[in-house]
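Q: Hi! First time asking for a complex rather than a single chain. Here are the components, and I think there are two in total. Is that enough to go on?
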Amino acid sequence: MIRVAFDIGGTFTDFVLHDDRGATHFLKIPSTQRDPGEAVMRGLETLLARAGIDAGAVGGILHATTVATNAVLERKGAATGLITTEGFRDVLIIGRQKRYETYDLYINKPTPLVQRRHIAEVDERMDFDGSVVTELGAASVERAIDAMVASGRETVAVALLHAYANPAHEQAIRARIAERAPHLSVSISSEVSPKFREYERTNTTVANAYVKPIVSRYIANLEQALAARGFQNELFVMQSSGGLVSTDIARDYPIRIIESGPAAGVLMGATVGTSEAADHVITFDMGGTTAKLGAVDCGVPAIMPSFEIGHVRYKKGSGLPVNIPAVELLEIGAGGGSIAAVEMGMVVVGPESAGADPGPICYRQGGTRPTITDANVVLGYIAPDWFNAGAMTLDAEAARAGIAAEIGAPLGLEAGEAAWGIHLVATAAMENAMRIVSVEQGRDPRLYAMVAFGGAGPLHAARLARLIGIPKVIVPHGAGVGSAIGLLEAAPRIDVSATRVMQLDRNAFKTIAEVYDGLQARAVADVRRLGATAEPVWSRHAYMRYAGQGFEVHVDLPAGPIGAGYGEAAIDAFNRAYHRKHKFLDPDAVIEAVDWTLVATVPAGDRGAGGMGIGIGQSGDEAPDERRIRPLTRMAWFPEAGGYTETRILTRRDLIDGAAIAGPAIIEDPDSTTVVLPGDLARISAAGHLIIEISEGEQSVG
Amino acid sequence: MNASGTVDPITLTVIWNTMLSIAEELGTTLRHTAFSEGVREGDDFSTALFDANALMVAQGNFSPGHLGAMPTCVKLALEYFPPNSLKPGDSILLNDSFIGSGHFPDTFQIMPVFVEARLVGYVACSAHQVDMGGAAPGSQKVHGVTESFQEGLRILPVRFVREGTIDEDILRIVLGNVRMPDKVRGDLLAQHTANLTAYGRLEAMFRDYGAETIETAYKAILDRSEAAMRAALAKVPAGTYSFEDCLDDYGPGTEPVRMAVDITFDGKGAVELDFSRSSDQVPAAINSYINYTRAYALFAIKVFCDARQPQTEGAMRPVTITARQGCFFNPRFPAPSGGRAILQIRIFDTINGAMAQALPERAMGAFSHWSNPNIGGVDERTGKPFVMYDLGLAGYGGRHGEDGPEAMTPVMNCTNIPVEVHETHNPVRVRRMALLPDTGGAGQWRGGCGMLKEIEVLAARAVLSHLGDRHKVQPYGIFGGKPGALAESNLYRGNQKLALHSKETRDLEQGDVLSFNAVWGWRLWPAGAA
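A: Yes, that's all I need. Here is the structure of the assembled complex.
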C-alpha cells in the first residue's frame, strides 16, 4: 500500500512517501506558519510527482503536527472559560507554587490559559471516594452557563473537585450546556484526565478546551484540502503516546496530540532499533535549538503519565503540567545554534540560542556570538561548503576568529582547543540529561543502543555514547526526517486511565477487575470510532508505590483474565519495577496502586494506518549524479589523536558494500553529518542504517 | 591536569556540572522514595556534596533553609566522628537543632565516600520528618514549649548505618518516640537510598577522572565561586544598611520580637550581617539557631547579589553572619525552636528592608506571611494516627517594574499539597482555597493578593499546632507603597467564630472549620525613578 506521512515542525515540514514498490521518498521544505496546510499540499504535490503516483492511489495519510502546541505556547487559543467547584475558583491561578529557580525571586509562574474573570463556580462537592457531599445546585449551573455565554466564550472546561472518583456532576453540567448553549465546545476533566491532584487535572482539561476549536478547524481544513486534491483515505494523527488516532478523536481530545512530532521520532527509534536487533534504545534528536532524549525499552517507546508545556529555559517545573500519557522526553537547550560564553573562567553553552536569525557566526547573517555549529565548523566536523548538502556556504574563518576572541582569549586557549571545549561542554550537558533518562530511571547504558537523528544528532552521537557508556550508535537512513518516518511505523492506539487508590493484596483482584471493566468499556467506545476492523491488542499498566509515598513507578501488568492470583501477580510486577528503578525493596511496606491504564493497539488493518515494515534503506531520491565531487579527506579535531588529524570523508554510498571502516572518519549525508571517533567502527547494515560500534576509548577526555 | 596543579577549563566545567547533576539526582531519588507529604509533595529537603575536608562543593536546587545549614552541620557532626573513625558504608544521622538546621523534624544523614579505601568526600541530605515526638503532632508547637526537651527526640550525631547495615537499635529508639513511625521510617530509608545513589555516581566520577584531578577541580570550584561572589559583593556601594521589623509575638499574650539587622558592605567584596540588635531569645519554640539564621541570611545575599551561580562553600566565604549569643537569632541550648520555620520569610524581609537602601531596584515589598499548620489526631476510618502538614503560601510584595505575583512560594521553595491528596489521606475536608482580592498593598506596583484556606475537621478530635505571623504587624511597603493587609486565623465552631492566635495550639472537634489567610505588602516606586 502507498502511504504518505508528514510532520509539521516549527521550521520545516518533513515528508516521507512509501510506495508500493518498497521505495521511500524523503522531502523537507520550509513550513508555512500562517497556514501550515499550504506547505503540506505543496510538499505532497512534489512527492506525488517524484514518485509518479496519483493522489487517489495513496492508501494511508499520517500526520504529526505542532498546531496544538503552538496555540498554547503562543497563547493563541480560543476564548476559554472554566466551571469549577464552589470555593476553588483559584486552583488554576494558585498552581503548585514552587519557583523553578530557588535563588531567583524575580521570576513568574506560567500564565494560566483562562483568566480569573472567566472562571465560574457551581455549588457541588464530591468526596475523595466518589460519594456526594453536596448535590449539584441547578441554579448555580444556570448562572455559570450564563456567564460563559455573556462573556463570549467559545470553549468551556469543566473541572470539579474529585471528579475522577465520580463524574456525575461534570456530566450533568455538560448535558445542561448542550441544552442551553449548544454552540459551546465542552471538555470535562473526568474524561480528559480522570486523575487526582486538582491543579494538574484542571490545567489539562483547560488546555484541552483551549486548543479544541483551533485543532478542530485545522483538521477540518486539512481534510477538505486533501479530499479536494483527490486523496480518498482517512487522515490519522499522531498522539503524544506514540499511537495514531482518527481525526474525530483528535478533535475531541486535542491535548493528546501535543507532543505529536517528538512521539513519532521516538517511535522511529523503536522501529529502527528493532530492525537492528536492539530492543533497548535511547533516542537522541538534536536540532538547531534543543536536544530531545527519549527511551525505548524492550522495543516499546517509554511513556510517561504526564509532561509540561512551555518550559522556561528548559527548567523542570516552569511549564504548564499536562496529565496525558506522552513519550518520555527530556528536552534541553543544546542545539546547533546554542551560544557559548565564558563565565567564571569556564565555558558555558546554551540555553540561549542564536536561532536561525542571526544564527551562528559562520552563517554570516550578523551573528557575533559563537555557537555549537561554529565550534563544529572550526573542528572540521562540518564542511563549510557542504552544509545542508551545499545549499549554504559557511564562513569557517569568521567562526574561528569569533571563537578565538570570545572563548579562546579569556581562557588562554587556541581556537581549536576552545572549539573543542564548546563541543565537549555541550556534549557533557547532554550527557547529564541522558543520565536522567537512563541511569536515574534504572536503565543501564551498556545495554542500550542510541538512535541519533535530527540535523546535529549524528554529529555529537558517538562522543556522547562514549561518555555515557552506550556501546552502539545507529544513524538511521533519512535521519533528517526521522519523525516523519516514525509516523509510517505507528499503529492506532487508545489509552484510557483512571485513578483508583487501593492497597494490593491477594483479594485485590476483584477491585482490579472492576476497574478494568470500566476502562474496557471506555476504550471499546473509542476503538469503535477508529473504524478499525481488526481486534485490538490490549495491554495494561498501573502506577504504584509503597503506601505513604507520593510518587509512583510504572508497572506493566499481566494480560489475560483478571481472577484469583492477579493481586499477587500485580505485587510481583511492582517489586520488579521498583527494584529496577531504586535498587531497593522494603518487604515490610504496603503496596498501593493509584492510577490504572488500559491501552488498545490496533494492528495494521485496512484503514491505511499501522506498522508495516518499510524498506528504509531504499531511497527513491538522490540520483548519483546529483552529488558533487567531494574531497576525500579534511583536517578534523580528535583529542585522542592529538588535535587536528587528517580525516576521511565518506558518504553512505561508500559503505554500501557492508565493509566496516575505522574512525576517525566523517560521513556526510545530504541532511546530516556523522562523526566517527578514532577506535570506533562504522558500517551500513542490511536495513540501510549506519551503525557505529563504540570502543570504550578514554573515559577522561579533558 | 597539568604539572602546575591546575585543571583545564573544560575538564573543570564537566566535573562541576556532573557534581550539580549528582546533587540533583540525590534529591530526585529522595522525593520519589519518601513517605511524608512534606518531603514528597512539598520538596521540604535538601542535598549537598562535600570534599574530603568537609567543604561543600555542590548543592541541589532544593529548600534553602537546610542548604545554608549544610556546611556547618557536616563539620560539627565530624567532631563526633573524626574522619579516621569512619568506614566505607557508614552513615551518620542527627537532628540536633544547633548542629542541624534549627529544629528536630529536620533529620540529616551524612555518608562518607571512599574510593579505593581512601576518604574522598561526603554526601549529605536532610529531610523534614512529619513528626519527631514532643508536645504536639508535627513537633512544631510554639506556645507553652519553653525548652527543647519538650520538643521530642533529640539525636546528636550517631552512626545510623555501620558498614552498610542499618543499626536497627537506633531505628527502634527513633521510631519508639515519634507519632508516625511508618512515615518516619520510610523517610529515613529514603534518605539512605538517596545518599547511596549519589555515592555510586561519585565513585564513577573518581574512577573516570582520578582523585588528583577531581581534588584540584574541587579547589578551583571553591576558589572561583568565592571570587565570583566577591566580585558581586564589591559592586554594592560600601556602607552600613540597617532595618528593623517586628515579629507579632511568640505566642498568645506575649510581646513582639524585634528583628534587626545591620549589613555592612566593605566595597571590596565582603559583607557582614549582624543581627545582634534583635530581641533576646524567647521561652517559646520559635528561636532561630545560628545555622538557621545563617541559612536564610546567605539565601538573601545570594538573591540580591549573585542569584545564578551554583552555591558552594566558597561563595559563602565572603559573607559573615553574626548575632550575639543569647539573642533571638543565636540562642543558647536548650532554647526551643520547633516553629522556627515561620521566621524564614521574616529573615528575608528584614534583610530586604536594609538592602532596599543599597540596591533599590532589587528590593521588593514585604511578603505576605505564610501559614504552616499541623493538624493531628487519630483517623477513625483507619484507626491510625494522622498529621496533616500544610503549607499556605501567599504572595510577593511589589517588585521593581512589576506587581508582586500571587501565590508563588516566597523564600523557601516548597510546593503546596493538593486538596485531593490531603482529603484522600487525612480526615479533613478543604472547604475553600482562594485568593483574597485587594489585600496586597496598593502602589505603583501592588503586592500580590493574599490567600485564604478553610479546613473542616472530620475526625472526632484533633489538635492544631498553628504557625503563622503578620496577624498584628502588617507586611511593609517600600518607597511609599502601602502595607499589605493583616493575616487572620479563625475557628468556626457551630455559630461561633473564634479568633485563633497565629502560634496557638488548640484542641479541635468534628465539624470545626479552620480558616487561615495570609497577605502581603507592596511597593510604590518613587515617581520618575523607574
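A: The first helix of chain B runs from residue 9 to 33. Let me know if you'd like any chain examined more closely.
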